[in-house]
Amino acid sequence: MGAFHAYDIRGIYGKDFDATIAYKVGFFIPELLGASKVLVGHDCRVSSPEIHAAVMKGVSDAGADVYDLGLTSTPMVYFATANYGFEASVQITASHNPAEYNGMKVSRHDALPVGLDSGLGQIKEWIDTGRAIVPAEVPGKIIPMDIHDDYMAFMLKFKGDYSDLNIAFDLSNGMANLFAKEVFGDAPAYIFDTLDGRFPNHEPNPLIPKNVEPLKALVRERKADVGVIYDGDADRVMFVDDQARFVAPDLVIALMARYFCDERGARNPRVLQEIRSSKSVAESLRKYGADVHTWRVGRAYAAPKLRDIDGLWGGELAGHYYFKDFFYSDSGLLASMIVLRIVSALKKEGRTLSGVLDEMTGYRNSGEINFRVEDKAGAMDAVKAFFESQETPDAVMDFDGYRLEFPDWWFNIRPSNTEPYLRFICEATSDELLGKRIAQAQNIIETQFGGTRV
Questions:
Q1: Mapping DSSP to helix (H, G, I), strand (E, B) and coil, where does residue 4 land?
Q2: Active site residues
Q3: Low-confidence residues of the chain, pLDDT below 70?
Q4: pLDDT tens-digit profile of 10-55?
Q5: How far is Cα 100 from Cα 119, in angstroms, rounded to an integer?
Q6: Neighbouring-strand partners of residue 414
Q7: Which residues touch 24 (CB under 8 Å, ≥6 apart)?
């Protein structure tokens, strides 16, 4: 049962979970969420149709009706859940993981995520304890549902005029292929623009640098103004600037103020960032009078938090961007439409994306450094205690690990929710200071706790 994680159910199909587990998840969802009808969709992975069938049979055997969306991106399921008033939905996907993985993303009413501590843990317990499966006397119906036209009509409201832009797209052989050319037309340059759940060109994870290299090469070749790359299920998107440099996803949170504030006229918006975000993000947003909130990593936490604060938008270092306009959910398509509007506006001013990002960035960043260590909590506490003994922090955040901010630097140290790692990220005003702080943290983790940097 190693497939149950903080945010979703995910693992190697046939090893971490199988069709029997998928069936049981489907069977228990109507009771868990009080749903008489459940939306179910799936991505293009080779194993997805089998899992999809098992989940639908489970839901039907529980007596609830299944509304079958068929082949969908994850944000399309969020849209359908909230737009049509469903109490429950399941998307069969492993998002950005390699082809042998698969999983399930479960949502409740208003497309609110169901995580381990908000429902998935209960399903896991029912399965682990062998709770009896007693099919309903009258099974639920399976009803095909086509939302394509409604979804496109909704999304196209946010489309800008991109006719002046030279754009390069990497669709990652994933679910972005369902809509990208319909939205952006044939003028851009596209690569890996067929649905193929084997992901033959690269893993559908834009956070791994080698997976972005083909897009960087295309940007150079075409002298593009911007490059866009989606992950496997199209809930995440990342960007390459006109200099073929990968754009730090957290900086895009700040960049979006140019759309929401400059173009749409929002004043003093509430914006959500996650605990690993660069200080450049909040500093840039505060120039717009934004009320910046910091919260935990992951959709299971970010989407409800944006709703709680009535935020206008927010984002994460992993390339998820959340929007009030999109039912407080994340959408790679909507995020890319907004960023392209911004790049178009900059081009009309004679400016470039790379130039604006350079103006925005005032710190040296370590990127996320992973350590394999047994005593994660002890190592986190020791690192925190050491730096507090050296200098009084300006701010201390103690959710999702620790974030301590000092005048010239900050760090976050947190345990991974999905992997056996302790994650450390640090930012400073100079390379020298950055290197010193990384070395100090690494020394504590390795010498006191036997950790290994990976």
A1: strand
A2: 95
A3: 1, 417-418
A4: 999 999 999 999 999 999 999 999 999 999 999 999 999 999 999 9
A5: 26
A6: 423
A7: 58, 123, 126, 127, 133
